[in-house]
Amino acid sequence: MLSDWTLWAEWVIKSLFVIFALLTGFAYLTWYERRALARIQSRIGPNRAGPFGLLQPIADAVKLIFKEELVPAKADKTLFFWAPVVTMVPSIIIAAVIPFGPVVNLFGREVMLTVANINVGVLYLGAIASIAVYGIVLAGWASNNKYAMLGGLRSSAQMISYELSLGLMFVTAIMLANSMNLYDIINQQQSVWYALVQPVGALVFLIVTLAEVNRAPFDMPEAEQELTAGYHSEYSGMKFALFFMAEYQKMIAISMIAATLFFGGYREFWFLKGTIFSVDHFWWLGPIYLLIKVVVLLFFMIWVRATWPRIRYDRLMAFGWKVLLPLSLVITFITATGILLADQYKNQLYYWSIPVLSVVVGLFTVVFVYRELRRKAYERA
Amino acid sequence: MSVLDPVVELVRGLGTTLKMMFERPVTIQYPEEKRPVRPRFRGRHVLKRYENGLEKCIGCSLCAAACPADAIFVEASENTDERRFSPGERYASTYEINMIRCIFCGFCEEACPTEAIILGDNYELTFYDRRSAIYTKEMLLEPVPSQEMTTPQKTEPGKYDRRSVPEMKDPTD
Questions:
Q1: pLDDT-based confidence at B172, cuts 50/70/90?
Q2: Are A307 and B24 inside 8 Å of each other by CB?
Q3: Residues of chain B contacting residue A36, judged by C-beta atoms under 8 Å apart
Q4: Which among A27, A29, A48, A25 has a CA at the least distance from the CA of A302?
Q5: A37 touching chain B per CB within 8 A
């Protein structure tokens, strides 16, 4: 069984590659965020450690490793220890199914540039994304601290509410590709991205991902003005660093997912199809295109954080349940109907109903939200 | 007010922050780039000299008396024409300011009858221990332009005996 150990070696190498990519990605995402935020605020940001402050993450890591770790006397010691681990692990393994390149011929064997090419890839993403909430809730509970507890509870409520819309957006992508395999989804998007087929769906997905990774304006679990630091109030040293890592790795992973499902994944931009810049010509362009898309999506997250204030908690829940969930349901319905019509009448033109109708529905949602807000303003006056 | 206003406003917010990205940062990169201080800035003290190199300080301890933080310690000694530090009878043989106590109020400056102590423009006062926070006379004294003007000087007898402050051309100055 010679092929057996080579298969294992391939898996190990690919897993290590993904893990190291995520870990360095995390380190430099903190640097990227601090620099970008600083520029938006007319500052320069960390630029002392190394050229352009590129060694800053290393300095931070050294500091965090050598910091004292405190465990509150009345904390649940076991859970307190395991909560960061439970948060950290899903944020890494979620990237296992994301393809970062096509099938390539390396050292005489066909290598698929993903850790696991499973045919229920999207389902796996949904499952792992839901596990992440456990770590946060357990951390909040184990700390035996009111603020941490509230942060954990908020986070669980928020993530469960927004996961419904996230799941429905997964469903739209699955329906459009007629497959749960991420390679199939990417290859279906060669000529047109799903962000163009389903623009409102992509927008909803981006909003929901902000809530899923607890980023501003939905960073309720760690709203510092209300909860000091939320679920990680009592954590220090490397345990805190694990939460921090998990948050940023989730940002990277979810940007990769968004790029894969709606922005063509590792494939070239649709207008470069068939040119020399195509992934079919040079396979190594695949990871580069994915990186570009991820960096742009991450910039969007940072930009939003720099711009919009944090939403109030009841409005967050109302927005999730009363606006995003019905909107996602309608979008799913429109997508399904469009695909059915196109299949039924063997006419590709019916696909056009999907973007048109979803934009109309999106506008209607805005109108409804606006009228509701105005009605409330009149009642208050 | 149209129905799209909420969305338009959100996007305008994003536009504003994006525009800010391309503006020059206002940061002054401190150790490389220093902002000049204002004329009346009160920084580290400097003990001044006359044009001929004699110290203005006569060791009268009025600054120490005026100091609300009790940061100044002065010890006076007698001048002679052989070893003359300052005009008049006495000079400060010890002059110490504890920079941890000093509140930079400038009262010492105002109390000084000879305008010997001035709060300068140096604000980089850092030290690793309490002992090095005490600035001695050598550290505070203004450097001399040339070696023969350093104190103590040998002066001709009777020239600087009586007055502590030399005759001024323009007393209102």
A1: low
A2: no
A3: 21
A4: A29
A5: no
User: Does residue B52 carry a pLDDT above 50?
Assistant: yes
d(CA A285, CA A266): 8
Phi and psi angles of residue A81, each rounded to the nearest 5 degrees, phi first: -75, -40
Which three-class secondary structure state does DSSP give residue A108?
A: coil
- Sort strands B45-47 and B117-119 into parallel, antiparallel or unpaired: antiparallel
A321 within a domain of the structure (yes/no): no
Domain B52-143 has CATH 3.30.70.3270: yes
**Residue B110 is encoded by which pair of tokens?**
């105002």
As a whole number of angstroms, the distance between CA A95 and CA A91 comes to 8
What is the tens place of the pLDDT at every residue in B76-117?
998 888 888 888 888 888 999 999 999 999 899 889 888 889
- The reply to whether A215 falls in a domain is yes
Cα four-point dihedral sign A27, A29, A35, A41: negative
Q: Which of B4, B5, B17 has the CB atom closest to A303's CB atom?
A: B17
Q: Which domain holds residue A307?
A: 2-311
**Tally of structural domains, chain A:** 1
Give the count of beta carbons closer than 10 Å to the beta carbon of residue A157.
Answer: 18
Radius of gyration of chain B (CA): 25
Side-chain half-sphere exposure of A58, counting CA atoms within 13 A: 7
Question: Is A348 part of any domain?
Answer: no
pLDDT in tens, A86-102: 888 888 888 888 888 77
Min CA distance, B8 vs chain A (Å)?
11
Residues of A in contact with B25 (CB under 8 A): 38-39, 42-44
Per the CB < 8 A criterion, the answer to whether A112 and A186 are in contact is: no
- H/E stretch holding A24 reads helix A2-40
Residue A105 lies in a domain: yes
Global model pTM greater than 0.90: no
Helices and strands per DSSP (H, E), number in chain A: 14, 2
Find the closest chain B residue to A42 by CA distance: B25
Cα separation of A78 and B31, whole Å? 48
pLDDT higher than 80, residue B173: no
Nearest to B18 among A44, A303, A371 (CB): A303
The structure tokens 């909803």 sit at A204
Residue B92 bridge partners (DSSP)? B76
Residues paired with residue B45 on neighbouring β-strands, in sequence order: B119
Q: What is the pLDDT of residue B71?
A: 92
Domain ranges of chain B: 52-143
- With CA atoms as reference, report the closest residue to B134 among B77, B47, B72: B72
**Average pLDDT per consecutive 10 residues, chain A (381 residues; last block may be shorter):** 70 85 88 89 85 86 86 84 88 86 74 79 86 85 85 84 88 86 82 83 88 80 71 82 87 89 80 71 80 90 88 85 90 88 80 82 84 82 72
Taking alpha carbons only, the member of A119, A99, A12, A14 closest to residue A283 is A99
